[in-house]
Amino acid sequence: MNSTGVPTVSANCIDWFAPPPGAFKLNNDVAVRKGAAIRDDKGRVFVANSKPLAGVFNAEIGEFLAHREGLLLAKNHNLNVQIAEVDASYVASVLNSMDLF
């Protein structure tokens, strides 16, 4: 998590790595559907979802929509996500460069 309290976003790597003890991590992906899973530091899935992706989008827009869905999932379940992974490095760089506060 950065100094403003926003989850750090990284491009997906081959192996899943755990967040710090007591923290939650958001993983999301997009294909024909958008989906997200939030896990704890032991890899246990706390919540997950998958929803249809309506419309025609390029891969980056789909990744942004999936990431948004994951953040809404965390908010709706009162989970403080500290780390988020996405499949696209471009999406990660845009999210990390945003001045949200």
TrEMBL record:
Domain RNase H type-1: 22-97
Pfam families tied to this protein: RVT_3
GO molecular function ontology, one term from the record: RNA-DNA hybrid ribonuclease activity
InterPro entries noted in UniProt: RNase_H-like_EbsB-rel (IPR052929), RNaseH_domain (IPR002156)
Residue stretches spanning the membrane: none
PANTHER family named among the record's database cross-references: BNAC02G40300D PROTEIN (PTHR47074), REVERSE TRANSCRIPTASE-LIKE PROTEIN (PTHR47074:SF11)
Protein name, per record: RNase H type-1 domain-containing protein
Gene source species: Dipteronia sinensis
